[in-house]
Amino acid sequence: MRNHNGETALFRAARYGKTDMFNFLAAKVSGYDEAGLQFYVQRSDKNTILHIAILSEHFDLAYQIALDYRHLISEKDGDGMTSLQLLSCNPSAFKQDPEDGFIKLAKSCCSTAWQEKVQNQKDKYKSAVELAKLLSRNDTSWEVSYSSIDQSKPKIHRYGEIAGQEGMSLAARIHERMDDVGETPLILATKSGIVEIVEEILRLYPQAVEHVDDEGRNVLHVAIKYRELKIFELVTKMEVPMKRLVRKIDNEGNSILHTVGINRKDFVSEKMEGPAFLLQEELLWFEVLFILLASTYDSHTGIFF
User: Fold this and answer.
1) Is 165 inside a domain boundary?
2) Whether pTM exceeds 0.70
3) DSSP state of 171
4) Which residues are registered as beta bridge partners of 48?
């Protein structure tokens, strides 16, 4: 039986992280085959119990669901998003500490509640990383390099009214950080600055580093555009044909050097930095890329990008 939101009791237990209740209800429907289970594990808008557990940030339960209902890992919601794609849009789940610097130190010295908050954040981080590893082992989206006219790619996730408050808050963060069109988990995680997901995908599938999105960009283009230095360094240290990556031109004719020169209007630094420091950072990016490009220069042919 479903409520007016199209949710079964099992679905709501996953949504609110009620693990004991979820296990009790899951045992009751365990006798159904995969087709029969869909009524209980999927909402009428195609969101599954795995989707909703991730949206609600109940990562321990999501991990359990992914193990017990492996067929849900590749299931897509109404917007064509898999569970790994949703997780790749949530950078806050991969932060180990709620705050940095003096404020964190001051609170940690005099507040038990704050210490508990920090520990909860660390626990959530560990759960998110373990979940990302499990989901990444089942991700093959990088195998397809979409053309610019491909219409089968998923849309950016837009949640309806019945998605609930937990979905709306995450949707807002996605809209702040993502372009108008959805991407593969590798590209989404790069945009979000989630090093853990990028590293795991590239560890499992090194060839995924040459994946090209619908705009003709590889992971280097995206890391540079979104100023994700850790991911940039991760890729450049890989034992891959770097010349091919560095020389890749996107559909607009932009090289990686062009990309660093593009001023993103929607880019807001997470740190409180003045104009002078931001300019220094931009110049550093140009310097790093120039050195990288120089390393691919062929003195015999005179080809430099």
Assistant:
1) yes
2) yes
3) H
4) 42
d(CA 148, CA 258): 20
Q: What is the mean pLDDT of each run of 10 residues along the chain (305 residues)?
A: 90 97 97 92 96 98 97 93 95 78 58 80 95 92 54 44 46 48 85 96 92 90 91 88 82 84 59 60 70 59 45
The range of the structural domain enclosing residue 120 comes to 9-219
Q: Residue 297: its pLDDT value, please?
A: 53
196: domain CATH number is 1.25.40.20
Asked if the structure places residue 127 within a domain, the reply is yes
Paired tokens of 134? 């499990």
Residue 253: count other Cβ atoms within 10 Å of its Cβ.
Answer: 8
In a domain, 26, yes or no: yes
- Number of structural domains the chain divides into: 1
Q: Which residue in this structure is represented by tokens 């005179």?
A: 302
DSSP code at position 51: H
Separation between Cα atoms, residue 82 and residue 89, nearest integer Å = 11
Compute the distance between CA of residue 14 and CA of residue 56 in angstroms, rounded to an integer.
9
What is the rounded CA–CA span in Å between residue 90 and residue 110?
30
